[in-house]
Amino acid sequence: MSWGTELWDQFDNLDKHLQWGIEFVDKYNKFVKDRTDIEISYAKQLRNLSKKYQPKKNSREEEEQRFTSCRAFMTLLNEMNDYAGQHEVVAENMSGMIFAELARYIQELKQEKKMHFQEGRRAQQHIESCWKQLEASKRRFERDCKEAERAQQHFEKMDSDLNVTKADVEKARQQAHTRHQMASDSKAEYCSILQNFNKEQHEHYYTNIPNIFQKIQDLDERRIVRIGDSMKTFSEVDRKVIPIIGKCLDEITKAAESIDEKQDTQLVIESFKSGFEQPGDVEFEDFSQAMKRTVSESSLSNSRPDGKPDSKSGKSKGKLWPFIKKNKLMSLLTSPHQPPPPPPSSTTPSAVPNGPQSPKQQKEPLSHRLNEFMTSKPKIHCFRSLKRGGAAPEDFSHLPPEQRRKKLQQKIDEIGKEIQKESDERDGLTKMKDVYVKNPQMGDPSSVAPRLAEIGQAIEKLRQESQKFEAWLAEVEGRLPTKSDQTRRQSEMYESQSSAVNNCPQDRESPDGSYTEEQSQDPQLKVAAQNEFDDEFDDEEVLTTIGTCKAMYSFEGQNEGTITITEGETLTVIEEDKGDGWTRVRRSEDEEGYVPTSYVEVYLDKSVKGAMTYI
């Protein structure tokens, strides 16, 4: 079917149809552009999503990457980033292979359509001009024929009239003849123009118009084919990235299958294992008999019959109270062993040497004392070296044994990597120096000597650091419990707890309500217990000064943890009264202790929260 033969009279409708076809191509091209924008926006959002959930550097999230589930999630984020990249490829290919090409093709369509329809309009104008010429010739022939007929009738009328002269008749005859000649000429011209018009009309409708309409039909068919090809390209662009997207999804599936719940739970054990043993059974307490004030075998100050300290106490050093903060135990065992004496009524130093003693107290059951010990808030921190905060110690002694061992091993590995790095650099410089020695023109061998010396010093320093941490590690590994020791040492914790309370005498109380030790207790055991706790904190910082105080009365510090002061003496305050009537002061770096708050006038620094002056 040809538009030239079937639609020879539909020139205007074909013009409208072709214009619609061009608009449809432009509409499809806009759709591709919007799809491209969506792909770009989607890829951008996927990248932002992946970036948002990436672990931040130097954060806890980086440590979480040792878990298989976290590593799988990291793989998912990375694959999602690659997935976003494939959408960017789709957008780029659609933009270059479809949108840009169709935009150029639309301009070509418009130009070609304009050319063909201009040619058709010229052909239409030409046939219309021929038609007008034919009409004019026809009208002229018709007019000449009518005038010739009128001239003939006038001649016949004049010739039949007897009153008309012969000259008038001849004149009428000549005029009629002239009119007939003009009509004959008009007829001949009309016939010639008519033949020419028919020829032009036949050529117009059977040659020119079909050719023009065929070109227009070809143009529209090419447009339709181009739309189909663009749609195929549209699908091919997506199909090309499907294998890569499939690989991304396969990697995500593979990462999900690599998650090992057993490994993750084992990592939790390695992360939080303290190295302490589980507590043993609690011994039965017989309340049916009066409790005797004798030193039990499980006491902290327990001694053998020969007066020597029990070796078990040394072995369980640092592991007696795994679930209680050290400062709570320290405060309970080392606070001053009696209530602060009231201030003397006289200013004479000898008036009240140490104040009246508290009346004897009825001893409470052991369970009450344990409960109070486990739940009471620590009043006073023991020992001058107990920190009020700050950076962790270098040997990680603040951590449980197992965690401390891991940290020390990690530190040793890091130092080993640094040593290897420095050694590699030293080997490279040594080779360079040898080359300079053999070929002086390439460089001066002495130029690398300073750097070699510097590296040697750095390596030596790192090795010393490594030896220090290895010594700490050996110490920790020596202290870690073995399976053979667990049965023997499970009950030591609660035995020590019981001894910490049972050894308290019944005649005095400490500021927080716990009983004090017997004055007749073996001093060697007291020194041993003191040294044992001092060893735990001997590397920590000294308490800072929070104010000063002036002694209003003299006080003789006879009990453990107190210090002797004289009237008028000025000392520094390192810990204020916690409500128990005692203030911790320092005379020098190695001499400090507790004094009754009522015996001194305290001046706290204004920078200290809640600072006040009280007597």
Layout: helices, strands, pairs:
Elements: H1 3-6, H2 11-52, H3 60-63, H4 68-160, H5 166-257, H6 261-272, H7 311-315, H8 326-334, H9 366-375, H10 401-438, H11 449-479, H12 483-489, H13 492-502, H14 523-537, E1 547-551, E2 570-575, E3 582-588, E4 591-596, E5 600-604, E6 613-614
Antiparallel strand pairs: 1-2, 1-5, 2-3, 3-4, 5-6
Describe the structure.
Helix content is 61%, strand content 5%. The protein has 14 helices and 6 strands. Helix 2 runs antiparallel to helix 4, helix 2 packs parallel to helix 5 and helix 10 runs antiparallel to helix 11.
- Proportion of beta-strand residues: 5-15%
Class from helix and strand fractions = mainly alpha
Q: Treating each run of at least 4 consecutive H or I residues as one helix, how many helices?
A: 14
Helix proportion of residues, in percent?
55-70%
Write a concise synopsis of the structure shown.
With 615 residues, the chain is mainly alpha-helical.
Structural key phrases:
single chain, 615 residues, mainly alpha, rod-shaped
